[in-house]
Design a protein that fits this description.
This protein is of the alpha+beta class. It contains 2 helices and 3 strands, in the order H-E-E-E-H. Strands 1-2-3 form a 3-stranded antiparallel β-sheet, with helices on one face.
Length: 88
């Protein structure tokens, strides 16, 4: 897809920096519009650096419907970032 992502070293360096809080931008995109999507890909990006920090992929079978995939991906991603010790 040609999407650039930060590597593991950069990820851990970001965690070590003395920031009060990270400013993230996030958005989800489904494979098809409407109520028949099978996959949702959610991306978290560092707002000030314009670097992708984390992504989540959710399949419709993991959610109650295609509409609930994006909120599920967001919650999973935020949980993962906060479990890593990032202050978002």
């Amino acid at each position: 897809m040609g999407v650039q992502m930060i590597g593991q070293t950069t990820f851990y360096n970001i965690q070590k920096e003395d920031w009060k809080k990270l400013h993230l931008t996030g958005d989800g995109r489904c494979d098809t519009p409407g109520f028949s999507a099978k996959y949702c890909h959610y991306t978290f990006m560092l707002d000030d650096r314009k670097e992708i920090l984390h992504t989540e992929l959710v399949q419709v079978t993991e959610a109650t419907s295609s509409v609930t995939m994006e909120p599920l991906a967001f919650k999973r991603g935020m949980t993962e970032l906060m479990d890593q010790g990032l202050d978002v």
